[in-house]
Amino acid sequence: NNNKITIAIDGYSSTGKSTVAKQLAKHLGYIYVDSGAMYRAVTYYAMIHGFIDEHQFNKEALISNLQSIEISFKFNSDLGFAEVYLNGENVEKQIRTLEVSGFVSKVATLPEVRSQLVKQQQKMGKDKGVVMDGRDIGTVVFPDAELKLFMSASAETRAKRRYKELIDRGDDVRYEDVLRNVEERDYMDTNRAESPLLKAPDAINFDNSNMTRDKQFEAILKLVDKVIDK
Ligand code: CDP
Ligand code: CDP
């Protein structure tokens, strides 16, 4: 199929963006890029270098070290998607902790961080045939994407989903802390000055509060087929 398109999926935290993006990429033979993983990897870098913790955020130090941060993706055929690497090290597991989630929205406010990552994201999607999920994909990274989705679900639904995911992987977290993190990131991501989370005018609203993963995939695939068949 030479009618490859770009699919931009934005929305609030834990709405199922990456779940459906992976399903779509597999089904269509497209590449999947988890842009949030890139912000998480930069945050993880800042944490292990002591640039951010619960008491301080040394933005200048992080900014002056941005050139030393190399993020890449490598497809893992067992998992069926690409894992994220920071300076050659697989950090897929390390970047998903609640601790990283607690700092990432602060790091994501920095214009210097955003412009570096956006440039890389645009390069990865230059030949189309890409599904990318994040917060600013339909508005900033690929404003010309042929299909844009804006995902939402109630905060409690999202926190429950994320809590289950963290417990299942063995993390010792409390539901209240996960819910608080989801709500704080919603707030910070929506209210920051640089590329805030915003529905692009031509994005389709998609609320999956009461949808299973399979139902959600089915419904979104219909939207994709409509665009591809045009
Ligand atoms: O998967 P989850 O919804 O928890 O978040 P994520 O997609 O991994 O993104 C983590 C954080 O990175 C978000 O809360 C945003 O602060 C930031 N982010 C962003 O600013 N722009 C993007 N395109 C993707 C993520
Ligand atoms: O990428 P994003 O943060 O938007 O969400 P995700 O990582 O795809 O989904 C968060 C959690 O919700 C995962 O554990 C999914 O399996 C689950 N989920 C669900 O239970 N029902 C859905 N309709 C979508 C996602």
UniProtKB/TrEMBL annotation:
User: What keywords are assigned to this protein?
Assistant: ATP-binding, Cytoplasm, Kinase, Nucleotide-binding, Transferase
Q: Where is the protein localized?
A: Cytoplasm
- Predominantly, its location class is cytoplasm
Which reactions are catalysed by this chain? dCMP + ATP = dCDP + ADP; CMP + ATP = CDP + ADP
Which superkingdom, per the lineage? Bacteria
Q: What is its EC number?
A: 2.7.4.25
An example of a Gene Ontology cellular component annotation for this protein is: cytosol
Select a single GO molecular function from the record's annotations and give it. Answer: dCMP kinase activity
Which residues of this UniProt protein bind ATP?
A: 11-19
Q: Which residues form the signal peptide?
A: none
GO annotation (BP), single: nucleobase-containing small molecule interconversion
Q: Which InterPro entries did the record assign?
A: Cytidylate_kin, Cytidylate_kinase_dom, P-loop_NTPase
| Pfam (any one) | Cytidylate_kin
Q: What class of enzyme is it?
A: transferase
Domain Cytidylate kinase, which positions?
7-225
Q: Which family does it belong to?
A: Belongs to the cytidylate kinase family. Type 1 subfamily.
UniProt-recorded name of the protein = Cytidylate kinase
- Which organism is the protein's source? Siansivirga zeaxanthinifaciens CC-SAMT-1
- Tell me what gene encodes this: cmk
